[in-house]
Design goal:
Number of helices: 2
Largest sheet: none
Helix content: over 70%
Number of strands: 0
Structural class: mainly alpha
Order of helices and strands: HH
Strand content: under 5%
């Protein structure tokens, strides 16, 4: 009788150990998947040629180029506007005088 109870207890423990082993394996697989995904994210962000930081750096350079272009166009427009205003004033004085 004691031997039978012992065998039943051992069988129950083996079943529980099997379930724990299965759970640990499932956690291990999930950890491996997460590790792969984290590696993909790290590669997408930090890749020196195509990563997020490289694209941000490129966009910042483009913005600086556009700011320089805007500044030079603004200066050019002020020169053109001043010249046209001067020409109109001269024409006005020539017509009056």
């Amino acid at each position: 009788m004691v031997q039978e109870q012992f065998e039943v207890t051992v069988a129950k423990l083996e079943g529980k150990i099997d379930r724990i082993t299965d759970s640990v394996e499932a956690i291990k697989e999930t950890q491996l998947e997460m590790n792969e995904k984290m590696s993909d994210i790290r590669r997408a962000i930090y890749n020196p040629d195509e990563g997020l930081y490289a694209r941000v750096r490129y966009q910042e350079a483009e913005i600086e180029d556009l700011k320089d272009f805007k500044a030079s166009i603004t200066k050019f427009l002020w020169v053109v506007t001043s010249a046209i205003t001067g020409i109109l004033i001269k024409i006005g004085f020539d017509l009056v005088g």
